[in-house]
Write a structure and sequence with these properties.
Two copies of one chain form a homodimer. With 404 residues, chain A is of the alpha/beta class. Chain A is built from 14 helices and 16 strands.
Amino acid sequence: MLNVAILGFGVVGSGVYEVINMNKEKLSDRIGEPISVKKILDLRTFPGTPYESIVTSDMNEILSDPEISVVVECMGGSHPAYDYSMASLKAGKSVVTSNKEVVANFGSELLAEARKNGVKYLFEASVGGGIPLIHPLCECLSINNVEQIAGILNGTTNYILTRMLNEGLPFDEVLAEAQRLGYAEKNPTADVDGIDAARKICILSDIAYGKEVSVSEIRAEGIRNITSRDVEDAHKIGCKIKLLGYSRPDGDGIYCLVAPFFVPVENIISQADDVFNCVLVTGNAVGDVAFYGRGAGKLPTAAAIVSDITEAVLSSSCKLLWTKNNNKDYVRDPETLPGRLYVRFASDNASFITDTVSCEASVISEKDGKVSVVTGITTEKELKKSLCILEEKGIKAESLIRLL
Amino acid sequence: MLNVAILGFGVVGSGVYEVINMNKEKLSDRIGEPISVKKILDLRTFPGTPYESIVTSDMNEILSDPEISVVVECMGGSHPAYDYSMASLKAGKSVVTSNKEVVANFGSELLAEARKNGVKYLFEASVGGGIPLIHPLCECLSINNVEQIAGILNGTTNYILTRMLNEGLPFDEVLAEAQRLGYAEKNPTADVDGIDAARKICILSDIAYGKEVSVSEIRAEGIRNITSRDVEDAHKIGCKIKLLGYSRPDGDGIYCLVAPFFVPVENIISQADDVFNCVLVTGNAVGDVAFYGRGAGKLPTAAAIVSDITEAVLSSSCKLLWTKNNNKDYVRDPETLPGRLYVRFASDNASFITDTVSCEASVISEKDGKVSVVTGITTEKELKKSLCILEEKGIKAESLIRLL
């Protein structure tokens, strides 16, 4: 009998309980023994439910139970989730989680502790919900040098951008609607300001490039400033605006950022609409491969967790590992990332603008006293020199978005 | 030192050699020791190349070399590929292959032999080229009951269908062009008649449902009969025509077939164009997840093989396994698969047609003396009763395509 404990019995925790019971046969076939949830840690008591008798509010009951070999952490937040995870690993139990905050902040420590104790710390569910992404990246694709990761990592913002595009509605209106429908939180900051996506691109970059990137080191732009005009201009040149987590190696460092991008409709990422996630990984041997599915939700997330429970038991070698990064310049300034940019100016002086911008800008729309251009290959840093000159002449850039 | 032998030094075999040398450091990091190609089996001698000295035409040199622990089979065809694979497994060597014909025909035997000898038989590269597909299916998604697999599994036919749609060209013309460009073989049967896709959907079904399905048991329709009118009608109702491998469980059996389908443009599969592959797997917990990338090509295929080489060495438990299927009715008659169908009639008598078809057909186009309809949910078997009645009245169906 494989005994597991679930920490936190909210949406995801209860989903794990549900999936374990729903697919019992499949699971015991796979791991060679039956699986049972022996303890649930929660402050609530759930009277009258079938699991009432296994609920506890005392973590020590779980830590001191030698029969519990896997701890599923679905608490959210950094503390006490991190502390309980660490304590579980020290107690010789594998830990499986969907908690991207803990993985992004403390991943290298927890992985090292797991390795020290001959157990696992697994977190497939922390990025892309149920989409197999972390395992393929650190196993199937691991023989590749990863040349780029670009992905829609947050369903809420993708839903908002999809509605803005399809219905021509402004951001505020769609956000309010998403909040009414429960797709966005009352406090939407983590989603719309790109923080959630930042945690996820950090985790993917940790795995792909082997060094820990902290959320505080990367620039995360959200979608609050995206206007209908941006959406319309993107459409005009065969693109959709998507909030992407983006990273790629650069010498001994990496670029890593979260920002809205113009994504060409031929790129498979642009086809992931509504709450779907899609992550495109480019390897030097395999080329482009993409992973698509629901990036959140009770059962998809729980499915990834339950899959990790079987991994914790079955697979002998813990292949996940990255090191602390001691190089301050490891994460490059995104202003130096080469690429093309979309810029909209509050001015109708198109010829003066294209003459001033140093990098071959071409006009894509002129109306309502505004000019939108797409630059040739440049960097934000380079472009901003031209923008300064234009601003001195009273021509302000009101929107600046990268092209993928 | 991990020593491998490569059987067959064509496109894929030489790609494996290239990837091993290209990503040497990444590889030795992963497996904890350097990797080296010790022998290449080929009838050619490759004079003047850096690998000339390791080429042999004698399989026994490889079988009797105790230092070679992994054999990479890239020969193609059933024989001697199967025989050499079996001999390698019996000699205690793991075998990695991209040979879908051997896996589809002899997979259960080879997997059983590998297990008996404590080695591995791995074939990630046999379906979807470099796309991580088989490992995610048999690991990450394995705790799900798979409810459906639908995928574009053949790049050549997808290229042809994409060109037919985008350029409005007829099948024969695009095929001739694809042959000129080297995208299609001179003898295009395996691709355009769905045989290649059939092997692949059999392999995926073997893994997903645990019982071996042989290519001879399933119906494979190709794309030879797809006309511009089919493509146009599909477009009219928001679909693209894609050649899909399709399977789903049905009680104690499965449906499993290869056929052109109308795929709604909202479905991510429809967005995989040209030579790209895309496979959508629906699990009862995880929901829909899709895998996308180049389904063929030297380096992508080689990347999957090299990844399997590391799997062969690293992972202790051989999780791939399925059993022979002894139930003649395990694979269901595709004529009984419920769904909606597109039918085009060589007649302009729309009202008589819709009155006669028993399953709520709606007309989608009427022109050039032809009527196209889409039925409600029915089965081919049911529909064919109506088609018989119509044929007696001189109204022949000239096209019949499933909707996904």
